[in-house]
Amino acid sequence: EHFETLLAEKRGNVGLITLNRPQALNALNSAVMRELAESLAAYDADEAVGAIVLTGSEKAFAAGADIKEMQPVSFVEAYVGDFLGGWEAVAATRKPLIAAVSGYALGGGCELAMMCDFIIASETAKFGQPEITLGIIPGMGGSQRLTRAVGKAKAMDLVLTGRMMGAEEAEKAGLVARIVAPERLLDEALEAAAKIATFSRAAVLMAKEAVNRSDELTLAEGLRQERRLFQSLFATEDQKEGMAAFVEKRKPNFGNR
Ligand code: HXC
């Protein structure tokens, strides 16, 4: 596959997508949206891929939506054309998607990282929602996913002042899962993804689905859903294999389909 705005390559059972618009700090334009949706859908459909890593450059994961592309857009164009609506495709990815963030993750860049299942950050990572400085507000989930991740106090602080927060603050607040040294970032994310890819594919997809439902359901509904998914896994070969391997003190060999 050849893309203009990103690189997509397989590393074993992991799909690696690298945003690649260095001249614009990986600003997210409609070409990035299209190509990212296409590459994610391809990895979702690829039986050999068990998890996906999304990363940027050392200086920027992504410095936001492309301001030069947005500048002339009218309300009618934005509304009728469902401006930014296509980004939903990222959150709709069914396989685990890890964001490996170094440098700036601002505006749409922060929102893109938050659409991933978890964020591994380099010590250099800087997160923020600076839309307010441009006369707009977050438009790809920032007001919702950031608030769920870090709570109202810090979300309000970031969205209203437009300030950036570093990796340490972001981890303490619950936005980031792990912080690593810059030179470890990609390996850490690839190793996590490769590990996920060794597990039962059905169990992995259900685990992601179950955790994501916690944002949408009441506790009672979420618990019921979790229990049904849990029970259904006893219909899989992978459950028999995983538990037999434990009892026989050997490594499991999951079918992964
Ligand atoms: C278009 C961008 C860009 C962006 C950077 N560039 N961010 N182009 N859209 N979001 C371009 C610059 O214009 C410049 O190109 C080149 O990338 C390098 O950027 P510099 O500003 O020279 O780099 P630096 O001085 O290191 O500053 C880095 C920075 C700054 C602090 C990240 O670039 C910055 O503030 N960028 C905008 C951040 C932002 O406001 N993001 C939110 C966007 S709104 P040229 O060719 O000019 O030299 C948003 C809306 C979300 O995301 C709503 C839903 C998506």
TrEMBL record:
GO molecular function terms attached to this record: enoyl-CoA hydratase activity
CDD domains: crotonase-like
Gene3D superfamilies in the record: 2-enoyl-CoA Hydratase, Chain A, domain 1, Lyase 2-enoyl-coa Hydratase, Chain A, domain 2
Keywords for this protein: Fatty acid metabolism, Lipid metabolism, Lyase
The keyword Lipid metabolism appears for this protein: yes
PANTHER family referenced in this protein's UniProt entry, alphabetically: ENOYL-COA HYDRATASE, MITOCHONDRIAL, ENOYL-COA HYDRATASE-RELATED
NCBIfam families in the cross-refs: PRK05862.1
Reported function: Could possibly oxidize fatty acids using specific components.
Similarity comment text for this entry: Belongs to the enoyl-CoA hydratase/isomerase family.
Protein's name in the database: enoyl-CoA hydratase
Native species: Pseudorhizobium pelagicum
